[in-house]
Design brief:
By secondary structure, the chain is of the alpha+beta class. The chain has one domain: Fumarylacetoacetase-like, C-terminal domain (Fumarylacetoacetate hydrolase, domain 2, Alpha-Beta Complex). Helices cover 27% and strands 26% of the residues. The chain has seven helices and twelve strands. Strands 1, 2, 3, 4, 5, 6, 9 and 10 form an eight-stranded mixed sheet that branches. A four-stranded antiparallel sheet has the order 8-7-11-12, with no helix packed on it. The protein is globular, with a radius of gyration of 18 Å. It starts with a helix and ends with a strand.
C-alpha cells in the first residue's frame, strides 16, 4: 500500500528537522519497507512545500544517478531528481562551513540556466539547448540526512531513501565562465577536481547519459507526466561526471574546468 498523506508529511518533517539540526535520522525504508519510488517523490514534494512555505524560493532542480556506474551501484536503470532553493546557493572562492551539513560530499557537473520553459513528452537534446540561456560549471554539494549506513544495524539506505532525502541535494556552487548552449561541444567539456593539492577526480560531461542535456530531457519528460514544468530562469544541475568526494573541515578544493575557468572551495 502507498504511504498515507500523514506518513508522507511525517517523513518530510523528520528529514527537514534532520537538515536543520544537522543530526542524521534513520532511513525511511527502515520504518516503511514497502515504500515505493512514487512514495519517495511524494515525501520529497512535501519537504519542498515545507521549505517554500517558509519563504525559501524554488530556483531549480538537480538530476542524479546519471552514470551507468552509479545506477548499477544503486541497482536502478534510471536517474533521480531533486529540487534547489535559494538558500542552497553558495558563492565560489568563499569559506563554507562543513559543519552545516550531514555527511557532506561534492561532485562536478554542468548547470543549465533556462531562458524558456521546458514541458513536453517528446523533448530531445535540441529542445533543451534551444531553451537554455547559458551553461556554467557547477559543483553539487550532497548530504545524507538519513544514514547512508545505519550505525547500529549496518543497514544501507536504498535509492528510495535517497529520493525522499531530496536526492541527497544540499547545495550548488557555480563559477568559471558561462557559455552559450551551442558555443562548445558539451560532451567534451572536461574538469579536474583537486582536493588539498591532489587531483582526485577527472571526467567529461559526456559521461552523463552521453550528453549532459540528456539528463534534462529525462527530467522534463518525467515532470510532464506529473503536470510539472521546468521554468524559465531556473537552474538545472545536469548530473555528475565524477564520483563524489568526502568533505570535512579544513579541506580545500579547486574545480578546474579548463577553458571554462576554475574556482576554489575552502571548507572550514
Amino acid at each position: 500500500m502507498p504511504l498515507t498523506a500523514q506518513q508522507i508529511q511525517a517523513e518530510a518533517a523528520l528529514l527537514d528537522e534532520a537538515e536543520r539540526s544537522v543530526v542524521q535520522i534513520r532511513q525511511s525504508t527502515s520504518v516503511h519497507p514497502d515504500m515505493t519510488i512514487d512514495d519517495a517523490y511524494a515525501v520529497q514534494a512535501a519537504w519542498r512545500e515545507l521549505k517554500t512555505g517558509r519563504g525559501q524560493e524554488l530556483i531549480g532542480h538537480k538530476i542524479g544517478l546519471t552514470s551507468r556506474a552509479m545506477q548499477q551501484a544503486m541497482n536502478i536503470t534510471t536517474p533521480d531528481s531533486g529540487f534547489l532553493t535559494r538558500d542552497m546557493v553558495f558563492d565560489p572562492n568563499t569559506e563554507i562551513a562543513a559543519s552545516r551539513f550531514t555527511d557532506l560530499k561534492i561532485e562536478m557537473e554542468l548547470a543549465f540556466v533556462l531562458k524558456h520553459d521546458l514541458h513536453g513528452a517528446d523533448l530531445a537534446i535540441d529542445d533543451v539547448l534551444d531553451a537554455t540561456d547559458h551553461i556554467i560549471p557547477a559543483i553539487e554539494m550532497i548530504a545524507a540526512r538519513s544514514f547512508r549506513t545505519d550505525p547500529v544495524t549496518g543497514r544501507t539506505r536504498t535509492v528510495i531513501d535517497t529520493i525522499a532525502d531530496n536526492a541527497a541535494d544540499a547545495g550548488i556552487i557555480t563559477g568559471g565562465r558561462a557559455v552559450g548552449p551551442r558555443e562548445i561541444d558539451l560532451r567534451w567539456a572536461g574538469a579536474m577536481l583537486v582536493k588539498n593539492g591532489v587531483v582526485e577526480e577527472t571526467g567529461l560531461a559526456g559521461g552523463v547519459l552521453g550528453h549532459p542535456a540528456n539528463g534534462i530531457v529525462w527530467l522534463a519528460r518525467r515532470y510532464f507526466e506529473h503536470d510539472m514544468v521546468l521554468e524559465a530562469g531556473q537552474t538545472i544541475l545536469a548530473g555528475s561526471f565524477t564520483r563524489p568526494l568526502v568533505v570535512g573541515p579544513g579541506d580545500h578544493f579547486l574545480a578546474d574546468y579548463g577553458n571554462l575557468g576554475s574556482f576554489e572551495m575552502p571548507f572550514v
